[in-house]
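Recall the central idea of this unit: under ordinary conditions, the amino acid sequence of a chain determines the structure it adopts. In this exercise we apply that idea directly, starting from the sequence alone.
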Amino acid sequence: MGAQIEPIETMAAELHRLPGVGQKTAMRFAYFIAQMPLEDVRSLSVALWEGRKAIRFCNVCGNYAAGDLCSVCADPSRHNGQICVVRDPRDVAALERTHEYAGLYHVLHGTLSPMEGVGPDDIHIKELMSRLSAEQVSEVILATNPDVEGEATASYIARLLRPMNIRCTRIAHGVPVGGDLEYTDEVTLLKALEGRREI
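Accordingly, the structure predicted from this sequence is:
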């Protein structure tokens, strides 16, 4: 980058730290910002700074919130006895986009990973168990990712729930809508067969 101007290089280096932003994209963003009016740049930076300062974790579920409670926990109509357990707040956002789930959430902020030294005390499993003891819960939906860590986490939580007489379900995994069986890997096909249901 020897021919680049130092402030543009600095902006590009910071933008490159964002997930999914490669070096070329970061440089393109930096050049775009360099030609923006100063007031627009100030508005952008203030929005990022103020937004980040205002974000906290919900006192109940661990989702992102602007106050003590996230919008889901603050909504009395969502208290229907269901708690959907997810890895992080992005998963809450993904499930909310379906406009189908009407219960509450619990965000673990990670998954079990013995290889990386992440055990049950490193994620919010204790907080989940406390909620289950204190709240009227009829079903826990385990919606962790279908990878090794997500499956291990779901199995661990399911074992903890067995003596509690709470229905424990796991989201289905399998062939994506619009996918071709011919190009689907064996593990995904196996999960699709295991999760089959009557129609």
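Strands lie at 56-57, 64-65, 82-86, 104-107, 139-142, 167-170.
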